[in-house]
Amino acid sequence: MEKKLVYFLCTGNSCRSQIADGFLNKLGGEQYNVQSAGLEAHGLNPRAVQVMNEVGMDISGNTSNVIDPELLNRADYVITLCGHADEHCPVISNTHVVKWHWGFDDPAKATGTEEEIMDKFREVRDAIKSRIETFIAEGK
């Protein structure tokens, strides 16, 4: 059976889409071909790498990519993780693509002490993991 292509999109492909990419690859990689990209490529956020390492997942080898129109139109699922990407997602010409928006706060915008910022990253990481587990359980 061919794996379904899931394309996670965010503004900069540095935090939320990378975390989602990491979780779906780890938890559902046998069912899904997972890709992620952004409207821009901001580079991999070191705090996102750190909070994923805390749960035993290494995303340090991931790259920050700009949306590929060919992948976008070949995907089975296009999932935006921030409002900006949802509003500015390029037009998808292929009608079989299922587009969903899963909105999560941007942990990179968190303020406060380092510990408070890291707590926000952990909160968003755990929320994304929960949503990925639901996605897999529903067998989409």
Estimate the mean pLDDT confidence: 92
**CATH homologous superfamily grouping:** Response regulator
Spatial sequence of strands, sheet with the most strands = 2-1-3-4
Give me the CATH architecture, please.
Answer: 3-Layer(aba) Sandwich
Explain the overall architecture.
There is one protein chain. It is built from five helices and four strands, in the order E-H-E-H-H-E-H-E-H. By secondary structure, the protein is an alpha/beta fold. It has one domain (4-137): 3-Layer(aba) Sandwich (Rossmann fold). A four-stranded parallel beta sheet has the order 2-1-3-4. Helix 1 crosses helix 5 (114-137) and helix 2 (46-54) packs across helix 5. The longest helix is centred in the C-terminal third of the chain and has 24 residues, at 114-137. The model has no long low-confidence stretch (mean pLDDT 92).
Highlighted features:
140 residues; alpha/beta; Rossmann fold; four-stranded parallel beta sheet; 16% strand
Q: What layout of secondary structure does this protein have?
A:
Layout: E1 4-10, H1 16-28, E2 32-38, H2 46-54, H3 69-74, E3 77-80, H4 83-88, E4 98-101, H5 114-137
Parallel strand pairs: 1-2, 1-3, 3-4
Provide a compact summary of the structure:
The chain has 140 residues and is α/β, with parallel strands linked by helices. The protein contains five helices and four strands. The chain has helices at residues 16-28, 46-54, 69-74, 83-88, 114-137; strands at residues 4-10, 32-38, 77-80, 98-101.
